[in-house]
Structures
1.
Amino acid sequence: MSTIELSRGPVEYTVLGGDPGAAPLVLLHEGLGCIAMWRRFPARLAAATGRRALVFSRHGYGSSGPARLPRSPRYMHEEAHEVLPELLDRLGMGRPVLVGHSDGASIALLHAAAHPVEAAVAMAPHLFVEDRTLRGIEAARAAFTSGPLARELAFYHQDPGAVFHGWSQAWLSPEFRGWDIGPDLAGVTAPVLLVQGDRDRYGTMAHLDAAQRALPGPVRRLELAGCGHTPHLERTDDVIEAVHTFLTDSLTESLSGSLTESLSGPLADPAPRQETHP
């Protein structure tokens, strides 16, 4: 494990090997996650796709430096537009493939709206504040208070209390109820794969519907029956296969489009292009 000093403090990270000529995978964890909580998924995804993979713990998580608390309702925007760009620039990982889960999926979509990426995979993304999400967080708060969740988080984080309360208090605050990133995603032109389990206690398929309405670029969706909030852990093989196919097809379509444009461009009369627009 390595550490890099960013403007907001140190961040722990690791880079898994792969083809240096291919866009790297960048994994963005959930609201209670960190490097270790991905388990073997990053290594398996990197091996399946042949790409390098950057895995890191955001500030306040794992062994990274502390976060700025309390978090504002725009904390995911700050991660997407301030912290992540600095990290990628410092590590020389331009135009990545973002693979985000939960909060990390929302951060991935927000980053892709304003920065160049090859593609994005959003697993259990949050597009808005749903009643089911708040009920799930309330249940998690009860589990933390009674002890089981607190003990589990203590295995992964230096300060499990700050991790849990920093996340839950932001989501349960009155200021957060109007949070909705749909209008912020108009700049996403890269292909996006959306993944959602139908038994996710933190969200429904409404988030995928909202994402499809908001995203102007190519969108695919994978709905997993009988799957909860962690598709990459509960249905690892299905998710890896879907991501591999998605990236292979996206690259093929990109190269095909570039070739067609380069061959037909000089021969065709220029015509205005129409821009298309959870």
Note: The longest strand covers residues 9-16.
2.
Amino acid sequence: MPDHSASPDFPDFRVSFTVEAAESADRMAPHRRELLDRGLANLARDPYHKASAPVGTHEDNRKAQVAPGILIEYLIGHGLMVVAVVTVFDEDLFLV
């Protein structure tokens, strides 16, 4: 398996958001935004973590549940992790 680690000078991947993902994150309640940020900080150390999974056939397009009820889809390249989608599940809304 290839080494996907960030540069030794910058051990964590830099995290950026698309406009849409940033808007979703900004609408989150403060306590949920804190959970998102903590999850992203952990994922930035290892964006290929075993708790993440590829989206489609390209290993650098991934998804991960970074906190309870918070799913992200992100792209990885050149020490950068771009969050493209932030999905927040309301745990109080169920069909059954």
Note: Strands lie at 14-17, 52-55, 58-67, 70-77, 80-88.
3.
Amino acid sequence: MVKISIYDENSYEKSIIELFQNLGYNHYYGPDIERDYKNPLFKLDLENLYVINKSLDKAAIDKAIEVIQDFGIASLEDINDRFMSYLQNGISVNYWKDGKELSTLVKFIDYENLDSNIFTVINQWTVVDKETKIPDVVIFVNGIPLVVCELKSPSREDADTSQAYTQLKKYMQVIPVLFNYNAFCVMSDLSISKAGTITSSEDRFMEWKTTDGSYETTQWADFTTFFEGIFEKNRFIEILKNFILFSNDSTKKIKILGAYHQYFAVKKAVKSTIQAINSDHKAGVFWHTQGSGKSLSMVFYVNMLQQELESPTFVIITDRNDLDDQLFSQFSKCSDFLRQTPKQATSMKNLKELLDNRKANGIFFTTMHKFDDYDEALTTRNDVIVISDEAHRSQYGLEEKVDPRTGKIKIGAARRIRNALPNATYIGFTGTPISRSDKSTREVFGDYIDVYDMTQSVEDGATVPISYESRIAEIQLDETILKKIDDKYWKLRQEAEVYNIQRSKKELSKMESLLGAPEVIDDICNDIVKHYEDNRAYELTGKAMIVAYSRSIAIKMYEKILELRPNWDEKVKVVMSSSNKDPEEWHEIIGEKSYKKELENKFKDDEDPMKIVIVVDMWLTGFDVPSLATMYVYKPMKGHNLMQAIARVNRVFKGKEGGLIVDYIGIASELKKAMSEYTERDNKNYGDMDVDKIAYPRFQEKLEICRDSFHGFDYSKFFGDSNLERSQVISGGVNFMEDVNREETKKSFLKESLLLKKWLSLCRSRANEKERLEAAFFEAVRTVLVKISGTGILSLSEINKQITELLNQSIKSTGVINVINVSNEVSLFDPEFLDRVRAMESSNFAISLLEKLLNDEVKGYTHTNIVKSEEFSDLLKQTMNSYINGHITNDEVIEELINIAKLMCDAHKEGEELGLTEEEFAFYNAIALPENIHDFYDDETLVKLTHELTDSLRRNRTIDWQKKESARAKMRMAVKKLLKKYKYPPKDMDFALEKVIAQCELWVDESA
């Protein structure tokens, strides 16, 4: 009969190996390779460096190998940064030959000739450093371990990619020598496969969803798409060379692996640019939605193109100084990767000097306004690439306009740039779509190169969705007047004639007086403070942004908020540009450039007390604070300006369900207009972001489902004033759900209550107090259920802590709520604790709690003591089966479980009384297992045998035992020889020998 086993981690590992073999990789099984475990390089393949560098002297290659085996003392990030430079660019070495010191460049990968490289996958690759660890799968190129894959069993609910991530981070701490060479890491459990770098947080590990660059059908990607997408040899080599970089600043290093959408789009952009150079010089428009890494895509593009075109020059144009600073900063952090230092032009004269002084290379930044009134050619070179950030501004006209009053001709900005750089090739990068009526952008740049829309970005986890909440009616502003003034202002502004611009400014002053009126500012600020305190202060890190209509209104709002909350002087700040005409009292509030940088660092620090920032124009584009989840809008915005602004809250952050826009000015219609330019599926999914139409109805729907789940249970006392009664109701709710007849109801409730929590985070201000309290009850019950019935290990005190925090946040209770009043030092074996559990009114809760704690204890035995593991596991199963089948009552099962706890406690004491360590006691249990063993040996002999067996195993410990069958066989022989010395086992007790050997093998595996 064929033995059928579950599809476990080992099975999945074998399937991954087979997949790599199908891709043409060599395969080895780690334990079969004789090697020095302290050196993670694969010496056999490392010899290929002499082949790919065959034109070089052997001494040079010897020196290169020597360098990468001794990086000296430095942080892992610093060493890895240095190694990645060697991997991507080669290493310059000095060596001696014939008495002379020579230098040359040694390469570790032949990027020009794919087949010259050796690609190898090895599973179970042991590494000894601070500890001994055996990663599941390691991918090598030319003997260098570039990728570490940690796999988890697809069939175990308690083993997932989160555990794989934790394990990878642990490896980095205890076997850092392996990660000196790491390009990136992979975590996979078949259902989810993601890649990230040594500095990536778990939420920044990303899937790879395509092998051909298509986006439309990639909502879920199977593991074959992931591994074939990244590790097809040509693509893998290209990723190593061009899509991994370090972003370095004075405080930290961040290693970045390009996402799949960046890889395919950048390749398209490079191809389009090369074609444009030889034709119409219009490379096209690169549209990737805000937050999906557009700035880094530019870096990847520049790096790749400078190799393809033999050192072109790049001119990068933005339309504001702060955007120029932000983009320049990103490029500067990546200057090592780009192998040149970007420069900011201070003027057109300076830009001309920069271009004149560089006949090749060069990355120069400038702004649109510097081209005003400039009508000369900066350079006539045809290897200049102009990159425009946000490529569809209204001033990108190619046409000339005549002022009817003066007769002066005004040349469009795009025309001025074309005149200044007549032979350059132009490409536009944008986070928002080009208007269908915007023909000038297409005239300048051409059509789309690649579109990565909002829907795909959210599906990929690159951004989070945004919801919208209107507060206009509640503060009683006249929306009709606002809309009339707003429409007039924008209509005039878009016409662009100078005299209409002046009229527009006059209309602006009317709006300023309306929006800045003291009574309106009072209403707005009172509502913002209340909304923030009631709904958003506890959302993630509590970061929020207020967008003010003007600089003077920003100051008024700041002063009013501090008047309402005088102790918020560290919490709320203003960030906006300054002017020489500013009143003196503004100076301290606005500060100098260095002060703004200080505020930027504080706002980006999740732990800093600065939580709320008031802005006007600054920080609305190109500024990322991932934990920022709330934006209060008190400024009319349209089109891409509006979409760029609200995208400040769409960045990914752990636990972030989405961003919330709170509207005080009436931007709803403009949101819909702006969204009309997006892709069809974006319009379908995000065309209406209104909380009242989407989030709140979904919340109410989930609330009703949760109510139905508790049909028959009275939780009305939860809405009273007593913390004790609330605590008791939570326990009662858990007890209600833990009834064995409600297993399916509990599963449904756990799923629906989690969705309830998600929707409430976006519509908390719309939900009434009764709904919020009810949701708090369901969330409290869900939290406890997950912890007591789940597989994760969590102390009772941690459960108490989480419930207390949850209730404090949701219902603002000042009391302390404890589900079970226990201390941090509580033990399952504490008689006092067991008495408390026995006395609990919620018997189902008590049963689940005891079962979980006992299961955790049994799990501990499965790793250390095979005999006790089987004994207690059987006892626990028998007891729970009797309860489930109705053979014993609730009270009886609690007593049985408490008795098992006491038996476990007695087992611990027995080992101590025999003078045995926990490790030794496990061997003693195996040796003393036969029922009448004491008829043949006394305790003294069994203890002596235990000591000798343990000492023998320790002395002969070898890490190969875990994987090498030949080594395991030697271990078994040594154990049998020792036991034979004691004439063990007695006659007709061969089964005893099998149990001792099994315990020895368990010890070997756990030691390794």
Note: The longest helix spans residues 890-913.
